[in-house]
Amino acid sequence: MASERRQKLGVAASVAALLALAVAADALTPEPRRIVLCALLGLMPAALLWRCVQALGRRPPRMEAAGGCAAPPRDRDDQLPALLALEARLEHAPIALFRLDHASGAGTLAPLNGSARRLLAPGRASAPAALRELLAAQPVGQRQLVSFDTERGAERALVAVSALALHGAPQRLVALMPVESELEAEALNAWRELVQVLTHEIMNSLTPVASLSRTACGLLDDAAATLPADIHADLDTALDAIARRAASLVDFVASYRSLSTVPAAQPQRVALAAQFARLAALVTPGWQAMGGQVVFAVEPASLEAVIDAGQLEQALINLLKNSAEAAAAAGVAQPQATVTARLSRGGRLRIEVADNGPGVPAALAAHIFTPFFSTRKQGRGIGLAMVRHLVHANGGTVRYARPVGAGARFMLTF
């Protein structure tokens, strides 16, 4: 900016000097000696004018900013900090950004920031090549909800693709935003509200049925002497069946009510080794009675977490109980389970619960956390649904991960 101002002042001064010499030469007596002297004096401002005009001609054109106002030119040294700041923001953006060089979608998908590189790194996406093909096939200008397999199970994400041209070459910018946690939270809230409404309405109907059936049983006993024996027996059997079923349904519905009344988490600093030691004292006798064992491990032993200890303990108890029941139903001779806590990439706490039971069929894996869904005839579908509620209440996620060998594997990430 200062250099441009100096060049303009030089042009103005040169023009003024040349005009002054021209006026002086015209006013003086036209002698050859004086004309030559004025011409010599005009060489210096003419040369200065030429240099200033050349310098101004070499300056790059101004860019027009928003609103039609001319944006002030910036030197390379001024632009470098802004470029570095922009690169840092893109690197740490929570959205995975990719570049696709060919507009046809046949090019190679290249990660542009840390989120994209971590997604394609070993230990995250189960099939990086399939994920690349999936993203490259997405249409431009539309948002699509896609699902892909990861080490922690299936995850859903929102994909948006934009087309642009850089240096004359067509490219696509692919943005992948993970939304699995948000979708799960919304689903949990919807289930919680539905369960709350259903249990309230069902309890309102069952309570008087149970009460009236017990009252009718008492009245029937009082009128036993006036009724024939066969009629009394039939009425007594019918009323007793009604009372028993009503009481059973009341207990059944009350168990589901717990899904809608999960208390708020009370997080505190917890030493996981001590937490696992208390949990081992609770569940080990039951597993030993089945002829099996549970192994707990914390890596490193000093690992701590800020979490609601009671809710974490209840979630792990439900998972281990589910493993024990599945192993017993499948007739596993020596059931085993392992509970391991360690830090994953990004410093997040990961707790893995694995067993050697029958596992979960692939067709049912997407439904096991749904309330009321159970693979057992006498199951109520509460255990795993409660696990998900408790984990989400502490800001975490729970996934059914594809096991390396036989059995089931659940991963809790906080």
Description:
The chain has about 425 residues and is of the alpha+beta class. The protein has four domains: about 1-60; about 90-180, PAS domain (Beta-Lactamase); about 185-260; about 270-414, Histidine kinase-like ATPase, C-terminal domain (Heat Shock Protein 90, 2-Layer Sandwich). It is about 50% helix and about 20% strand. It contains ten helices and twelve strands. The radius of gyration is 39 Å and the shape is elongated.
What's the CATH class label of the largest domain?
Answer: Alpha Beta
Gyration radius, to the nearest Å? 39 Å
User: Approximately how much helix is present in the residues?
Assistant: 40-55%
What is the assigned CATH homologous superfamily of the largest domain?
Histidine kinase-like ATPase, C-terminal domain
CATH fold topology of the largest domain: Heat Shock Protein 90
Taking the alpha carbons of the first and last residues, their distance comes to: 53 Å
CATH architecture of the largest domain: 2-Layer Sandwich
Low-confidence stretches: 63-67
Q: What sequence of helices (H) and strands (E) makes up the elements?
A: HHHEEHHEEEHHEHEEHEEHEE
DSSP strand tally: 12
Reported for the largest beta sheet, the result is: 5 strands, antiparallel
Number of helices: 10
**Arithmetic mean pLDDT:** 78
Total individual domains: 4
Shape: elongated
Strand content: 15-25%
Strands in their spatial order, largest beta sheet: 2-1-5-4-3
Which class do the helix and strand fractions yield?
Answer: alpha+beta
Task: Give the tags.
414 residues; alpha+beta; Beta-Lactamase; 4 domains; 5-stranded antiparallel beta sheet; 5-stranded mixed beta sheet; 10 helices
